[in-house]
Input
Amino acid sequence: MRKQFPLRIAIVAAVFAVSAWYLYPPKKTINLGLDLQGGIHLVLGVDVDKALEAQVEREGDTVRADLEKKGIGVSRIERRGSAELVVQLASTQTWNDAQSVFREQGGFEIKEADQAAGRVVLALRPKEAATLRDLAVRQGLETTRNRVDQFGVAEPSIVQQGDNRILVQLPGVQDPERAKALIGKTALLEFKLVDDGVDAEAAARGSVPESDEVLFQRRVDKETKTEQKIPYVVRKKALLTGRDLATARVSIDQNTGEPYVSVEFNAAGARAFADLTEANVGKRLAIVLDGNVHSAPVIREKIPSGRAQITGGFTTADATDLAIVLRAGALPAPVKVLEERTVGPSLGADSIRKGLLSTLTAALAVVLFMLIYYRLSGLIADLALALNLVILMAAMAALHATLTLPGIAGVVLTIGMAVDTNILIFERIREELRAGKTVRGAIDAGFARAFRTVIDTHVTVLVSAAILYQFGTGPVKGFAVSLAIGILASLFTAVFFTRLVFDLIYMGPRRVESVSI
Amino acid sequence: MLQIFVNANYDFVGKRRWFYGASLAAVAVALLSVAAHRGLNYGIDFTGGTLIQVRYDKPVTVAEVRQGLDELKLGSAVIQQFGDAREYLIRLAESEQKSGELSARIQGALGRAVGAQVEIRRVEFVGPQVGRDLQLQALYAVLAGMVGILIYVAIRFDFRGGVISIVALAHDVIVALGALSITNREMSLTVLAALLTIVGYSINDTIVVFDRIRENRGRGLRKGQTLANLVNGAINQTLSRTILTSFTTFLAAFVLLLFGGEVLHDFAFALVIGVITGTYSSVAAATLVMDWELSGRTRAPAAAKLSVKAEEVAAKKS
Output
């Protein structure tokens, strides 16, 4: 390593050039974390069991249809737990025919069979259940992505985390409340007939027919701000759902000036809608979103156009967001916000300012200290430190790593620790000089002896950085990344670069009597 | 040239019982404080809950903030000034799901109570399940950190060195936790990151001294030199480096404490404490090598193995 100056200079120059290239222009290359630029970090838990239940209930309808097609009477089919169907046959006479139908149900296996009672319990196969759960999460991911895309966020990140969690990161969102509401909404749209034969007030107190359910319409009085809940008795079975929609958009009512959402069904949906309106003229159709009745207009005539309106005292933002979620589709299962970290833009700007201030102050303090304590050698170490910071920033830009507030702390800490290597080497050189070695001998020995220790200290810091990265969440990961890169860069700058400069100054052809250290 | 500790020759080994006493006392105080506070003061990262940072456009008092909150009847809320008198942290134990709605309601109520504009600067909500997960993860992280370092030191030096390093690390972490507990600071994810950094940093210092002990031992004991002399020599030779690098790192951490802002305050505090204990423990741990070695020597000849190993290394080098 003693000579080969051209090669070594070329390496340093190349590293510097590549770093500079990655860093230009600085504003565009370094990714700022959510805590610095403001934004939302959400962890959503997908309630996969709910998705499973919904699927099992749909399968229950299929089983009933299959049985009835063969003329087998069914008195009851109901879901038990999240993955079982209990089938009660109308008569035990049909037992054998029914068995063959059950065996044809691919996703289910017969768990219990009681011929005397005419009762069969079908259980979803574990593999099928696992597939459905997985599908629910993936659909949830897809739906969330669609919604965020339509909402318009620059560089969102939406990824699966663990088995059933979705991590959503939306940098620079100005209105976090709205974004959260948009993402968290299940958006299950259902059209259900109102059962006018039952008194709604009485039903709300308890007596509901088996095929019906009580849903509420929430109305907030604009003056008193109090919430009213109006009960409706509706048929459990949804006649149409959000799946039958082709599109949804916001319109403004010409008379009231209130925004509403107009929806358009796809071909099959439009036909079903026409049939259902024709068959139920005079009855009321409840438009239900996530279990809440939005409105329940009376069907006046057959509607062949396949268009409907959802009204209900929306603000423009409400209506826009509802249209977005209807277009993007319902979530296959309800999601729950498990974790949220929202940083307003002003706090982010504050953090950047304070981060810069502390980085610069720390750098200045350390640079001055090294200069005063080690003089020319200190200056070399300071140059190495500057190079280290350039490489660190460039590496973060190249790796598309994210700079977070703890990440800035990592940079500050790197400044403190990066000179450690140089101090280690310089102290060793001083020691060798005191032991009576020549300048060149002392430099050689100092670098050589300190090197082992340098490696040891670097590896231990890397180990802890790796563990931080493995176990940490967003901001802490950022800290681990900047710490690890800084430490690796310091191997290059504090050892390779410093040695090169020392060699250039002291190992030349002329005699050297003293060293400024 | 500026120099500190030139030809330092302090008798660290002779005074090691003082170190052990001081360390035991510090650990005892730390544990007592944690016990007196009924365990660590876990932040919402670990317990679950909601944290909202608000900023008024004029200075207000804690009472005025509380007055605004009372209107919403949210249950017990902890209100804490954060930086100047315009900025406050509100902690709610209740982990309300619709935190979006919640922060909007809080913004309105706080503003109405004092007739000021209120800005919601930060909302953190951690559900109970995530909190539990994070708590477990934190435990794993610290344990994995220690095991990783134990393995590394055991490979590079010997098992004994590894164990002593871990003892030193545990000491540093406990003292840092104690300092956090005494000053009523919260255990958050960033503080945990600081603790893990302390782990990495402290071992760094310890290794430098260990390396020197090994190097000196590789040369063999000179006539009349005792093991105590050798260990003392190693500590003294590295003393200036230990103090200097600790000083630069301390400088950086201290700057963070001063200028890093409120969000990083606890993090920087833990680092400052960690740098101090890490430096101290690297010296104290080296003296521990001494004691273990001596006790091993009187009990079993197996302890000679380490010296043999060291001599082999020396032979390879030359």
